[in-house]
Design a protein that fits this description.
alpha/beta; Rossmann fold; 8 helices; 12% strand
């Protein structure tokens, strides 16, 4: 089974991936941010590096999805390939930070790759307000994220909500994380896991 966790920057995807992989004994697969050669440059000069960054993430996540096909274990994935194509790339294009030529090239490549893989069995969407995202981003202190603007996060949040509104509801659980601290508060984690259990029962 393939479980994927989606959400804006700072929503808690990586932390939740780690926690539920331990709880259920699932195999965790994380977003490639540590070894990503474009992130620092992207946040310094978005217009120059947006296409490079999105292609890197597209390749990385497609590679993960191909590996999932032959893996008999249950997978939990930190962020999906669909978020790049439906949220990040079109947002960069709309903001004038990715040219129409590059965006068209990117989408055509995504469509080709999407035809070769299947979506997750269940999507966990972490919904968060902008103040909460800003607080979490500052708390974790990644240098390259210091320049992320509230406008940028707001635009992404709007696109996330639009995307989620059209997603298959039978294969999704939405978690509002503003009032949850599932990292430090055991009861919050237990409550969240209870919601996941209910959704897992529907697709079992």
């Amino acid at each position: 089974m393939h479980i994927a966790i989606a959400g804006n920057i700072g929503a808690g995807k990586t932390s939740l991936t780690e926690l539920i992989s331990k709880h259920y004994g699932w195999q965790a697969h994380y977003e490639d941010v540590i070894d990503n050669p474009y992130l620092d440059d992207f946040y310094t000069h978005m217009e120059r590096w947006s296409f490079n960054l999105q292609i890197y993430f597209l390749r990385s996540r497609f590679q993960q999805l191909l590996a999932f096909k032959n893996n008999p274990k249950t997978i939990v994935q930190d962020r999906t390939v669909y978020e790049d194509a439906h949220i990040f790339a079109p947002n960069l294009n709309a903001m004038g930070l990715m040219s129409q030529r590059d965006y068209k090239n990117y989408i055509e490549l995504f469509n080709l790759m999407e035809s070769l893989v299947e979506g997750p069995d269940m999507l966990i969407y972490l919904r968060s307000s902008i103040p909460n995202l800003v607080s979490k981003i500052h708390k974790r202190g990644r240098d390259y994220e210091n320049s992320i603007s509230i406008e940028y996060l707001s635009r992404l949040n709007e696109r996330y909500e639009a995307w989620i509104s059209t997603y298959d509801k039978d294969k999704m659980v939405i978690i509002d994380v503003d009032d949850l601290d599932f990292v430090e508060n055991k009861k919050d984690l237990e409550s969240l896991i209870s919601e996941i259990d209910k959704s897992l029962a529907k697709i079992a």
